[in-house]
Structures are given as C-alpha cells and as structure tokens.
Amino acid sequence: MGRLIVIEGLDGAGKRTLADGLTAELAARGHSVARTAFPRYADDIHAELVGEALRGRHGDLGESVHGVAVLNALDRRAAAEPLRADLRSYDIVLLDRYVASNAAYGAARLHQDAHGDFVAWVRELEIERFALPRPDLQILLRVPVDVAARRAEHRERTEVDRGRDNFESDSALQQRCGEVYAQLAAENWWSPWVVVDGADRVDFADLVDEHVMAPGR
C-alpha cells in the first residue's frame, strides 16, 4: 500500500512547485508517484461548479460557505475510490489540497478558528461520513500572505485560464486562512503534519528523508 501525502497552503504558496520537486526527487530514488490536484475542475462536475460560482456565476452560490464546501467535498468523495486504487498501485500518492483546505477556507470565510463549528462540520462530513482516505502526512507550505499574493498575480499574468477567483483576490481572507492552517498543523489535525517554509528554497532530499519516507510516518 502506498503513502498518501498532501500539500496544503495559501493560493500562490507554491504547492505545484513543491509537488514537482518532490515528484522528481522521489522518481530519482525509484519510487512511483501518482498526483491529483483538488478541486478537479476538469474532471468533476462539482469542482467545475465551484470554479464557476467563485467567479460570480450561479447566483448567490459562491456566497454560501457551506454550499461551496459541500461541492468541494463531493468532488473528493467521487475521487475516493480512484485514490484508493492509486494507493494500491503507486508508492506515493501526492495531493495538491485535500480536506484541510475545505476546513481552513470555510472557517476563514466565517471568521472562525480551527476549533469552531465549521471545522468540526467538515470533519464530520468528509472524514466520518464520506470516510475519505487518511493522509500519512500533510505538508503545510507556509509563506507570508504578500508573497503568496505576488505569486498568484504572476501566475494570473503568465498562465492561460489561471485568473484569480474571489478567494484568491481577498488578502484578508488569505491572512485568516493562513492562521487556521497554522492551527490545524500545530494540532496534527486528522494526521501528522510538517510545516515547510515556502519563502526559502526547499531541500527536497531532506524533506523526503525526514518526513515523506521517514520510518513510522
């Protein structure tokens, strides 16, 4: 059975870059890697609706914190069996965002922290009711909000179809979200976490040795 590794962080934190680096390091060591990024905008109708709602479509759906969260959760529920199949076939299954992103962003939108009702509701829905695969490790890629915003702006200018949505453009929301993420990581919410400084160069070899493939993880 493979290991499920999740990368979490703010929009523009550099999650895809970290995933690329980890994939290359793991492949160089002979490990097979499968990757999925949530929301799966191109592969799941629920994720597609989320993307449209956060860009102003579908009336007031984008304003509903629980409505958006349910759609994101249904996207992951639909991916649960493919994820389990990947875990049977690959050494590492690497995810860009997972359940904690739903918890952190929803709590931040409601001005709650990690101990509020919203995070508890996400746990009940996705972890207990949907029984999604539990991560072996969750990596929080921590960067200052202004750094993440600059990276997101650059991505918007240089990549086709990567315009920022309402979440990504709200710096106060991103700040609150970062605080919730930090609480989740500090408490090892659902599974073990490690915090990586995304503002500096990441040593992928050390990250793999000390955390991703460390005995007992």
Description:
The protein has a single domain, classed as Rossmann fold, CATH 3.40.50. 51% of the residues lie in helices and 12% in strands. The protein has 8 helices and 5 strands, in the order βαβααβααβααβα. Strands 2-3-1-4-5 form a 5-stranded parallel β-sheet, sandwiched between helices. It is α/β, with parallel strands linked by helices. It is an enzyme of class 2 (transferase). InterPro entries: P-loop_NTPase, Thymidylate_kin-like_dom, Thymidylate_kinase. Its EC number is 2.7.4.9. It catalyses: dTMP + ATP = dTDP + ADP.
Please describe the structure with a list of short key phrases separated by commas or semicolons:
single chain, 217 residues, alpha/beta, Rossmann fold, five-stranded parallel sheet, 5 strands, EC 2.7.4.9, Thymidylate kinase
What is the CA-atom radius of gyration, in angstroms?
A: 16 Å
Number of helices: 8
Using the coordinates shown, work out and report the CATH topology: Rossmann fold
- Provide mean pLDDT, rounded: 91
**Helix-strand pattern, N to C?**
EHEHHEHHEHHEH
What's the arrangement of secondary structure elements?
Blueprint: E1 3-8, H1 15-28, E2 33-37, H2 45-53, H3 65-89, E3 92-96, H4 99-109, H5 117-129, E4 137-142, H6 145-158, H7 171-186, E5 193-197, H8 204-212
Parallel strand pairs: 1-3, 1-4, 2-3, 4-5
Helix pairs in contact: 1-8, 2-3, 3-4, 4-5, 4-7
Give me a quick take on this structure.
The chain has 8 helices and 5 strands, in the order βαβααβααβααβα.
